[in-house]
């Protein structure tokens, strides 16, 4: 047991690290902690029980345990004086401290020793101090050799892992075989590992999120609605957040696409996407419309240059996308329902693109005079978030007071960390709402309409398309009445109707 009464003895601090979560299931943690306790007892040290320095499942290959982990925390406590000079750091081996290249790893050891800390390797009982590293060439040589061997082992593992993943990627691209058990939250790996299957109720949620987005619902609204309805989150979270909705809407795996990555100098570099790797849970047409809404860019640049309603035009009968079609040099480019092209929507009608574009150019002023009022939901959302942040801050104050009374308490610190993370998430949401309010819907739309009018007057179809998608959710091209019905993105219940030249060319087929 730790002796907490004799304060004259030097204090020793145990540092436990292993690289993979799987090692936590084995004997690594017990072996390292028991070895530290034996050394402290044998050498008259008082093993500290106030601070815990454990980097479990964290690699030292790139120095993360120093930059992000508890080894860095140990050094900060030494610098602040919370850990006194003359103390001991007990590690199983030098490779627990660092697996970087020998030069960088030696710098880490020297930083600890310079701070007045003796580093003890428990496997051989060797002590490293600033003085021994300066004056004892054997200690320096042993440290360098240990770091070289550790780094070489990690380099070999990294190379083999890279080769194994390259082989998996090749197999995935050629045979469609899964590379890993990991997959989006709405899918699961089959028992025979031959592929992935959608999880029924989660698949429905993903589709609903995309549908709500196309209806003009914001990410805050979607997250709050799922929380209010008690829809379970995908994974270990306790509630839905806007950030997860945002990631889901931008995730190409919803349409079956997987993009492998490789690391180059610590950066993740995307490689060639694998189409059809995952089962698609969202139609491609829906995906492209949502991406157009989110990015403010056309889902197809070439199409946007020629199609003023790219990503917006929809069929008045079935609601499917209407795409631009050109049958040849002698025909006029026309809008046609994608389902009608396959015989799934009748009757087949084509609407000349030129007639639609002329109507939009001739009625640009109406977008300005028929602006909807600012979205009152934003004000309600701001008030809700401000109240929630206030409640979290009160809870944080109470935790801080409790820590002040009770001293170091891991349970209280863990609770404090959760509250801080929750506060950060709410602040992110509030910042987004504030930005939307700061550029209030009416003012933002006026500016966008101004850019739209300029683009239309300059016959800049591509820019006009971008501005239209910033303003509207969909545009119904109704060949039955000769109406274009524009649905505002942020106010779905309000529309603008524009007449176009119909039936200038009735092309029923």
From TrEMBL:
<dbReference type="InterPro" id="IPR025827">
    <property type="entry name" value="Zn_ribbon_recom_dom"/>
</dbReference>
<dbReference type="Pfam" id="PF07508">
    <property type="entry name" value="Recombinase"/>
</dbReference>
<keyword id="KW-0233">DNA recombination</keyword>
<keyword id="KW-0238">DNA-binding</keyword>
<dbReference type="InterPro" id="IPR038109">
    <property type="entry name" value="DNA_bind_recomb_sf"/>
</dbReference>
<dbReference type="Pfam" id="PF00239">
    <property type="entry name" value="Resolvase"/>
</dbReference>
<dbReference type="InterPro" id="IPR011109">
    <property type="entry name" value="DNA_bind_recombinase_dom"/>
</dbReference>
<dbReference type="Pfam" id="PF13408">
    <property type="entry name" value="Zn_ribbon_recom"/>
</dbReference>
<feature type="coiled-coil region">
    <location>
        <begin position="409"/>
        <end position="443"/>
    </location>
</feature>
<feature type="domain" description="Recombinase">
    <location>
        <begin position="185"/>
        <end position="300"/>
    </location>
</feature>
<keyword id="KW-0175">Coiled coil</keyword>
<protein>
    <submittedName>
        <fullName>Recombinase family protein</fullName>
    </submittedName>
</protein>
<feature type="domain" description="Resolvase/invertase-type recombinase catalytic">
    <location>
        <begin position="11"/>
        <end position="172"/>
    </location>
</feature>
<dbReference type="InterPro" id="IPR036162">
    <property type="entry name" value="Resolvase-like_N_sf"/>
</dbReference>
<dbReference type="InterPro" id="IPR050639">
    <property type="entry name" value="SSR_resolvase"/>
</dbReference>
<dbReference type="InterPro" id="IPR006119">
    <property type="entry name" value="Resolv_N"/>
</dbReference>
